What we know:
With about 425 residues, chain A is an alpha/beta fold. Chain A folds into two domains: about 20-130 and about 280-340, Periplasmic binding protein-like II (D-Maltodextrin-Binding Protein, domain 2, 3-Layer(aba) Sandwich), CATH 3.40.190; about 135-280 and about 355-405, Periplasmic binding protein-like II (D-Maltodextrin-Binding Protein, domain 2), CATH 3.40.190.10. Chain A has helices spanning about 1-25, 35-45, 60-75, 85-90, 110-115, 155-170, 185-200, 210-220, 235-240, 255-260, 295-305, 305-315, 335-345, 365-380, 385-405; strands at about 25-30, 55-60, 80-85, 125-130, 135-140, 175, 245-250, 265, 275-280, 280-285, 320, 350-355. In chain A, strands 2-1-3-10-4-11 form a six-stranded mixed beta sheet, with helices on both faces. In chain A, helix 2 packs antiparallel against helix 12 (about 305-315), helix 7 crosses helix 8 and helix 14 (about 365-380) packs antiparallel against helix 15 (about 385-405). The longest helix of chain A has 24 residues, at about 1-25. Chain B has a single domain (about 40-280), classed as MetI-like fold, CATH 1.10.3720.10. The two termini of chain B are about 30 Å apart. By secondary structure, chain B is an all-alpha fold. The interface between A and B is medium-sized, with 25 and 19 residues.
Amino acid sequence: MKSLTKWRMTAAAVTVSMMAGPALAEQLFWSTQAKPIEESQKMRDEVLAGFPGGVDYQPSDEGPWLTRMQAELQAGSGRIAVLGGLHGDLSSLGGDLVDLSGIDAAAVGPAMMELGSLGTGEQKYIPWMQATYLMVANRKALEFLPEGADINALTYDQLIDWARATAEATGGPKFGFPAGPQGLKHRFFQGFLLPAYTKSTVTEFRSDAAVVAWEKFRELWQYTNPAATNYSFMQEQLVTEEVWIAFDHVARVADAFNQRPEDFVAFPAPAGPEGRAFMPVVAGIAVPRTTPDMEQSMALVQYMLQPETQIATLRATNFFPVIATELPADMPASVQAAGPAIAAMTGAPDALPALLPMGLGDKGGQFNQVYTDTFERIVLAGQDIREVLDSQAEVLRALMVEANAPCWAPDAASEGPCPVN
Amino acid sequence: MPRLLPYLLLLPATAFLCLFFLYPFVQVAHDSVMRNGVYTLENFSRMAGHWKFSTAFWNTMLLAAVVVPIQLAMALTMASIVTKLQRGRSSILYIFAIPLGISDLAAGLIWLSVFEQSGFLNSWLVGLGIVDQPILLLGYQNTWVIFIAIVLAEVWRATAIMMVILVAGMGLIPKEYGEAADVFGATRWQKFRRVTLPMLKPSLQTALILRVILAFEVFAVVVALGGTQLPVLMSETYHWQFAMQERGVAAAFAMVILGVSVAFTILILRLLHVPKGARV
């Protein structure tokens, strides 16, 4: 009898340990970042390999990423241990993220930590890595720079002149812009073009200044390679020299520098009448309430903040650390090129940071669509700017009301949903 | 027991269809008229109010209207050839059917590698000296080129499925009819029009319904070749569901596709109706 009980207990213990086995062995890191296959492999081999217990790093597109997380939340249990995503991705899950105040994140700047609270009293996510967007030019284009223009302090007018001169000299449009389906064109309108002319992303959407901004962009579009509507990662067209001057996310031009460091220069985004608007990008890590193992999830979040992990992440993804840390001298060419340009942009006297959308919940995609639709209608379909802005402003206003999202910088703070004048 | 056996054998398939087809279908239909917990038609009005909706709708219709007749003509020709062959029949059949084994996304990518700015067509044109430098074919300025590329890819990819059905149908036509026509001195064309085509109606029905429905659901090929430059109903459905996170509007799009498919299925059934006594 006794031996039978003992046998049963052993069997039970074996069963339990087998069931618990996979959960203990691998933490599922469900992320919208580092999606290109080389980057996710580096995340696995170089960034996460050092975490005791192992991590299963799985990147995914934003839509399926959110859909799976919502399915696990609805089911009340899940396999996702840690979420990685941009500020906008995570803000749509606010209520279902665990408070991370217990994590030691003293090394992260307070302004960035504040973003991670998503406007609640809790620490919903911990900043993980950061980046921004930059301009990149082939050195061959530099000789066509308009006279007296300083590449580190360009204006939109000078950029247009430059693109025109380059197009005329080479016989074809040489400006590049990621307007393809996977391209980040909407960020250019939200964080660069419109704020530079209107000091606003939302409120002044249909102002006269916004009309001027779109007119300028239409002008620039004449010198933009028409294949731009297929461009997603500008590094490809920079390397093939289909374009000589381009705008894109730092991580999406990195390959150009890494492949041919001597041939390209990085420089700040141009300035408009209201300043040199730019959009800082913050990615964060969060823990969903359905995590299979809270302790391991917390340990993984803490692990991501270690200086060595942050440096390894920079090497893997070209996203910069969120903590102040000494960068080793042997960093990739892309980091060495982007670093000074980012410093010049953020430190410019007319710098105007325009934050990523906040408080939109799962309406982030629709918010982006307003800007993409505006672009497609004005620039591609050639519709009247005033009419398009008026009709898209209605969509935008309805969206802000539905999401009940207050304004974020550079728009002036609002009581209730951010108004569209 | 023997009387129940057929039903028992049907049970697994029925259960499978109910679980994985009927249940999601009811859910989608429900989602399309539900918004914030209230029954409403707002999803449909948002769908119809979006500036791309009519373009997407007519692009889909136009694609089906161009692709399906071409495929029908080609499939009939190919099936006739295969049926007439004395030797090498199965080899030819296999060769014709190769594109069937390729997923539609892969087919789209194959044709993308032909039409891209750095693709085969361009390097061929440059190599022959017809153009100086590669031209942008799949650009927003000439969507008709994108349209033609999609038509080519669809015809290449999905004609074989009609052909396979028609080959099977032609095999079912009794030889006596053809022989009788020969006795009366009918030409080949007369035999095809007066004997083969009418006898083929049931297979034509199946082939057309299958193809037309698939034509309304065209997606991967369009996305691969055109991105968002040539919206169709299915790509808009995907976009509203995943990029815009608007399940209700996506469901409304799905219902439109369903409605169009059902309407055309009924139309084809009516047009190609075979009276019971006239069936083979």
